[in-house]
Amino acid sequence: MPRDRHVMRALELQRDPSLPPTLELDPGACPVLRADGAMKERLERRDRPPPPCDPACPVRAFFDAARAAGAPVEIDVGSGYGRFARGRAAAHPEIRLLAVEQEGARVARSDVISRRAGQTNLAYLVGEARYALEFCVPPGSVAAVHVLFPDPWPKDRHARNRFFRAPNVELVHRLLARGGILHAATDSAPYFAQMLGTMAADDRFERVAPPARGPDERTDFELKFLAQGKTVSEAAWRKR
Ligand SMILES: C[S@@+](CC[C@H](N)C(=O)[O-])C[C@H]1O[C@@H](n2cnc3c(N)ncnc32)[C@H](O)[C@@H]1O
Predict the structure, then answer these.
(1) How do residues 160-173 score in pLDDT, each as one tens digit?
(2) pLDDT tens string 177-203
């Protein structure tokens, strides 16, 4: 089946009315989550205040509901096909997990699997993770941020696209509650070295053992890399 037919099939399956309600958040009226070209340009500008996220933003509502339930919130940044997010939410029913991924078809596929399994402590958000984190997630409210197998952007001229750079570490620091964990994994040795260097330079974090993960919490890309015989590196840091 050509790739776009797989995409169409995933999106179609997601609309199956016989399934429980979708776990994908509807951006609603939030200008940040709905950001189009002009809005993206505005969100990228740092010379004037960003537009506020809407009071009825579904990400805010997700955090409000978690706080009311006393449930710790974890975020999976770039959740891809969602294997880790589903496994983590299943292994830890006490948490609420927000999986953010820019590719709608990947989310659709995972959403269908979650709904068939009756998962309820997991929500999906399709879009640019950085905008949602920077403008919609309440500061100090996150127990763990998982950044697993982020795109390595190996060419020097693309290095600015990597997640592990000081501004994003700053952002994660702002979002984490005290004692919260930043958790990362990669198959790229140079990128892992950069992660370690970036985090070692920030004494607001201390390196700790990565969260324990069962077999169902291996990510889709991790399984692919391991099957190819690649070495996978993993680390975690706690906000002091
Ligand atoms: C290499 S894949 C890893 C996916 C998953 N974590 C895993 O290990 O199987 C990286 C994922 O991050 C997503 N991604 C990259 N940049 C993103 C961004 N700025 N916002 C949301 N998703 C992003 C990509 O679409 C892709 O699905």
Answers:
(1) 889 999 999 999 99
(2) 999 999 999 999 999 999 999 999 999
**Ligand 1 atom 26: the closest Cα is on which residue?**
80
Contacts of 124 (CB under 8 A, 6+ apart): 23, 24, 25, 79, 82, 85, 98, 99, 100, 101, 107, 110, 111, 114
Domain at 163, CATH number? 3.40.50.150
Summarize pLDDT for 4-26 with one digit per residue, the tens: 999 999 999 999 999 999 999 99
Distance 14 CA to ligand 1 centre (A): 20
Give me the number of domains the chain comprises.
Answer: 1
Q: How far apart are CA 120 and CA 118, in angstroms?
A: 6
Which residue range is the domain that position 196 belongs to? 3-239
Q: Whose CA is nearest to atom 13 of ligand 1?
A: 78
Q: Which atom of ligand 1 is nearest to the CA of 100?
A: 21
Pocket of ligand 1 (CB under 6 A): 78-81, 100-103, 106, 128-130, 148-151, 219-222
